[in-house]
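Deliverable D4.2, example record:
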Amino acid sequence: METITNRTFAEIEIGERCERMHKVSERDLILFASVSGDHNPVHLDAEYAATTPFKGQIAHGMFTGALISAALAMNLPGPGTVYLGQNLSFRKPVMIGDTLSVVLEVTAKHDSKPVVTLGCTVTNQDGKVVATGEATVMAPTEKMTVTAPLLPQITLG
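Output generated by the structure prediction step:
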C-alpha cells in the first residue's frame, strides 16, 4: 500500500516544486469519458479522429487538468489539500502514448490564510508544453501521512 505525506502551509516555501509523470492510454480516455459524460469521438473513435487535424485520438483537455489535480492531492501540498481554483490553457494536443510530466511550482503564499498559489506546467515526452496554468489551493495546516485507498479493478467491455 502506498502512503502519502503532505506538506503543511508552514512547511511550503515559494519556489518549491514537484513533478508527477503519467503515460496516457486509450483506457484513460475511455474511463474519463465514462465518468465525465464527454463522449466526443475525437477522444474515443480512432477512425473518426484520423480525419481530424490531430490525425488521431486526443485526450480530453480536462484529463490533463485531472493530472494536475492528482499532483496537488498526492504531491504538493498532498493529503488535506482543498482545491479552490484553476486557470488552464491547452497549448498542444495530448495523444495516446504521450508521457506527460506535470510540474507544480509554488509562486505565492497568502499572508493570513493557508492559501497557496502554484504555477502548473504539463509537458510531453518531447519537452513540448501541452498545458499551462495556475492553481489556488488551501494547504493543510496539520502534518499527516495517510495510506492511499486501494481502488477497485475496473473492467472495460
